[in-house]
Amino acid sequence: xxxxxxxxxxxxxxxxxxxxxxxxxxxxxxxxxxxxxxxxxxxxxxxxxxxxxxxxxxxxxxxxxxxxxxxxxxxxxxxxxxxxxxxxxxxxxxxxxxxxxxxxxxxxxxxxxxxxxxxxxxxxxxxxxxxxxxxxxxxxxxxxxxxxxxxxxxxxxxxxxxxxxxxxxxxxxxxxxxxxxx
Length: 182
Description:
77% helix, mainly alpha, single chain
């Protein structure tokens, strides 16, 4: 096994050097993992499948790649620099209370904005959030779960609203909501 190790040492060193160039990890950790992979390869190698050098090279590549992902993840967690997919969600009731207060503030701002709009705009908003049965039936026919602006426009036209009145209402709603979100 010692002769096999000495013959394979250049392959191991190349793999470790390659990993060192791509990752900022300690050489000792990578080298110890590479030596462990070598031992596993020496035990599991079957000469029928090909050359040991190829088997070792492939095993080192995939084994070191996996280990480096583990080590870099641990290092990033220690430093508090997690990737977005590694972040843990910590539940704290105070966070929910703060979020609820923010949501209440946003809701009250939106309510105040709508109350400052013309009666026509308020009626359009009311119809949007509480659609009459005629619009709900049409939604079911079209398999649409949300009310579209064009459907709202058609409904308002069908109940006698003028085009200009509808467009002014839509414009006022859009302008008011844009001011809230800016």
